[in-house]
Design brief:
By secondary structure, this protein is mainly α. It has a single domain, classed as Na+/H+ antiporter like fold, CATH 1.20.1530. Helices cover 80% and strands 0% of the residues. It contains 15 helices and no strands. Helix 14 packs antiparallel against helix 15. The longest helix is centred in the middle third of the chain and has 27 residues.
Length: 301
């Protein structure tokens, strides 16, 4: 277990350096807002789905499916904890703040980190953890930012790229559909750009944020405490009850529970008329701080 924690610490340092690369690229104007938006689409619609599908290129194993079911259950528990906090401890918080506590950065940070630390097989478990959060994000999450119920639809949920990738991956895995080796290598190579590109995108959020203004807001500290300390601490208590045979799954779920505020907080704010600058600042600050808190919670697990 200590080896995994050391590896996690090493990888979060790498991710911090990638984030700083994005920061510098944006600051020297090698990349502008339009470019950031386009590259974000590449991550969301191409690289992340490729990483997910690649995790299903394996021989059928009923034990893996059993562990995947456990991962899905832990993902639901994680989201129940997050949402319960916004209805109790943080009920007076703004809707943007509630979004920050409920939705964590599983796609842009969780998947790449699990892939680096625990291997490609663990990405499959992370996609199972992500499933319920994705549904919440594209329903209740959109409402928290936009306050417009008409923007919520079943179609948006089922056509969300990670969800589509899971459906495709499950079909390939369960039916053992033969996929040519060249196609598998292509999908794997596309998936390999997910981690560096996602972290550089978060770096551009940091470069574009007014951190002084963000840190002057009292609610900022409540969001950071809720997302990085309270929510993962409660998840830790729940995940310690997981059977020892599911330890790898519980580690994946713990990494998921301790990830920072989701990048879609800034993206949704920009798209649905929210406070983009504040959202980008929260995403950036929570990401930097999570590089300290994530290894801590995994070590405690």
């Amino acid at each position: 277990m200590s080896d995994v924690v050391v590896l996690l610490i090493q990888q979060v340092v790498v991710m911090f350096l990638l984030m700083m690369t994005g920061f510098v690229i944006y600051k020297i104007k090698m990349l502008d807002q339009k470019g950031v938006s386009q590259l974000t689409n590449v991550v969301l619609y191409v690289a992340t789905p490729a990483t997910i599908i690649n995790s299903f290129f394996a021989a059928y194993d009923v034990q893996v499916l059993y562990k995947g079911a456990w991962a899905a259950v832990l993902g639901v528990i994680m989201m129940i904890i997050n949402m319960a906090l916004t209805f109790t401890v943080f009920r007076k918080m703004s809707d943007l703040g509630k979004f920050g506590i409920i939705v964590s950065n599983l796609g842009f940070l969780g998947i790449p980190l699990v892939q680096m630390v625990l291997g490609q097989q663990a990405v499959f478990y992370m996609t199972m953890v992500m499933a319920f959060q994705t549904i919440v994000t594209f329903t209740y999450g959109i409402y928290l930012i936009s306050h417009d119920r008409t923007l919520i639809s079943f179609r948006k949920v089922v056509t969300n790229p990670p969800i589509v990738a899971v459906f495709v991956g499950v079909l390939i895995y369960c039916l053992q559909i033969p996929v040519p080796a060249m196609v598998q290598r292509t999908v794997a190579m596309i998936g390999n750009i997910n981690a560096p590109l996602a972290m550089m995108m978060i770096g551009t959020y940091l470069a574009d944020a007014d951190l002084k203004k963000v840190m002057a807001e009292k609610e900022t500290y409540l969001i950071l405490a809720g997302r990085l300390l309270v929510a993962p601490a409660l998840a830790l208590l729940a995940f310690r009850l997981v059977p020892a045979s599911m330890r790898e799954v519980s580690m994946v779920a713990m990494i998921a529970a301790s990830t920072p505020v989701a990048g879609v907080m800034a993206m949704f704010s920009q798209k649905y008329g929210g406070d983009y600058a504040y959202g980008a600042g929260i995403v950036s600050i929570s990401t930097i701080l999570s590089l300290i808190t994530m290894p801590l919670f995994l070590a405690l697990l």
